[in-house]
Specification:
Blueprint lengths: L2 H14 L6 H11 L6 H9 L1 H11 L1 H4 L3 H20 L1 H7 L3 H21 L1 H7 L5 E7 L5 E7 L6 H11 L9 H11 L4 H26 L6 H32 L2 H19 L9
Length: about 290
């Protein structure tokens, strides 16, 4: 892997990690288009540079992320299904990371599902446009005078809701599905509006992606050389910066327009890849 390839993959990761289009799927496609050779290092890179994008969540939402111990416990419950299945199916998942066909089909089917979800949960999508991030609360100051101040809304989630959303997240182990998409849909099924579903998806990404990145790094640690570390750092820095921009764009977009535009995008990309492959255009990752 070259520095240029690391930068390109970092940009792709930062742009797509929080969009319901599958960051892993897009990085696999980018690998194929760049005609990169598959290796244990590239597998580590694809998983590990997601950590840079995740750091952008902590920076942008640090006040809400560090809201209460109870919230962390709920995140832990949501994380458990992915942790259990991820360990059990790690070899199978690694094989799927080489399949462009899997990505294309997942993008296409996922796009159709997003368009349907946009219709089914239209009210919860519309409600997000009127959901303010702060609430006005009255309290008495040190002089006993009642004052009004604005506070950030806490994300309220029950144990059951957290676990169900976590179960949805396991579907994203198939490349091209999109962790963001399935967890947002999971949140919508639990009566969250789309804005709060997206934010919970961001927060759930922190333990999920951190654990996946650490596990992959430890598993393949002996294969990593000094130059590989430099590439990992480069990719993470790029994905962090681009991720900061992408989060703001995404929240604004889904609050106004919902998920259907991402659905159309997925269908176009997935169908285009399948058509190209059908007519003999080689989109594969060399072993």
């Amino acid at each position: 892997m070259t520095t240029t390839e690391a930068v390109i993959l970092g940009i792709v990761e930062g742009l797509t990690e929080f969009l319901p289009v599958s960051s892993t799927g897009h990085m696999i496609l980018a690998e194929a288009l760049l005609e990169m050779k598959k290796s244990s290092v590239t597998n580590v890179f694809i998983v590990n540079i997601q950590f840079g994008a995740i750091l952008s969540v902590i920076i942008l939402y640090w006040k809400r992320f560090f809201q209460s111990l109870d919230f962390y416990y709920k995140l832990a419950v949501a994380f458990i299904p992915a942790a259990v299945l991820g360990l059990a199916l790690s070899k199978f998942i690694d094989r799927l990371l080489s399949s462009v066909t899997t990505v294309a089909v997942s993008l296409l089917v996922g796009g159709i599902i997003l368009i349907l979800v946009d219709k089914i949960f239209k009210q919860q999508i519309d409600d997000a446009a009127h959901d303010e991030d702060t609430v006005r609360v009255k309290k008495r100051n040190e002089f006993g005078v009642e004052v009004t101040s604005e506070q950030l809304k806490e994300i309220k989630v029950s144990w059951k809701q957290a676990f169900i959303i976590g179960c949805f997240q396991t579907i994203a182990m198939v490349p091209g599905v999109s962790r963001s998409a399935v967890t947002i849909i999971g949140g919508l099924t639990q009566k969250f509006n789309i804005k709060r579903s997206a934010e919970f998806s961001f927060f759930l990404a922190v333990p999920t992606v951190t654990a996946a990145a650490a596990f992959k790094l430890l598993k393949e640690f002996d294969t990593i050389r000094g130059t590989d570390i430099k590439l990992l750092v480069t990719g993470n820095v790029i994905s962090f910066v681009v991720g900061m921009l992408a989060i703001k764009f995404f929240i604004e977009l889904i609050s106004r327009f919902g998920l259907k535009f991402f659905g159309y995008y997925r269908i176009i990309v997935g169908a285009t890849i399948l058509i190209l492959m059908h007519y003999g255009y080689k989109l594969e990752i060399a072993g």
